[in-house]
Amino acid sequence: MPQKTYKYERIKTPVSDQKTLRNKGYTPFYSSNVSAGQRKDKDLYIRFHNGSVYKYPNKGKRFNDLALSPSKGKWVWANLRRTNAAYSKVGSMPLSGDLDLTDEQLKTQFNKKYRSKQVPLLTGLLSTMLPSDNIGLLLALMGKEQLLAKGIIAARVAL
Fold first, then answer.
1. pLDDT single digits (tens) 73-119
2. Hey, where are the domains in the chain?
3. In the sheet where 52-56 sits, what is the strand order?
4. pLDDT mean across residues, the chain
5. Cα separations (Å) of 51 from 3, 10, 30, 64, 133?
6. Is the pTM of this model over 0.90?
């Protein structure tokens, strides 16, 4: 029996929201599920695309694993949620680019089993670490179409 494939779209956080997240100590992610992450002392904080912020106590040392993973949402589900790691919702950080979903809708939407083409590690690193306001060099080297095709930039980002 063929395995069902679920479509999902990675969301590029708007530049203004990225700046807000960085000012609050978060690293924005290009993900369909996870908006940003932060290590604070020993704890890991995850912000989802609906604005909800969750704290995972004593998981801060895993932040680099999250940041380097090609799929942030899959990493959160595989390494935190499905392992029953302790967590608590610590609030909400509303931003202009948020999805209008409840926490339960967000969990249901992304808890489905799906398979996807893995993003190459370099692409995952660049999409996570590269500030979108400094993308000019990559545009000069590769061109907009290649950056779009590799998932380094999103189609709705104005360049």
1. 889 989 998 899 999 999 999 998 888 888 888 777 665 543 344 44
2. 15-149
3. 27-28, 34-40, 43-48, 52-56, 88-92
4. 77
5. 32, 16, 15, 22, 23
6. no
* Closest CA relative to residue 30, chosen from 45, 40, 17: 17
- Residue 2 confidence (pLDDT) above 60: no
Question: What CA–CA distance (Å, rounded) separates 126 from 137?
Answer: 12
**DSSP for 118-158, written as a single string:** PPPHHHHHHHHHS-GGG-HHHHHHH-HHHHHHTTSS-TTS-
Length of the chain: 159
**Percentage, residues of the chain above pLDDT 70:** 63
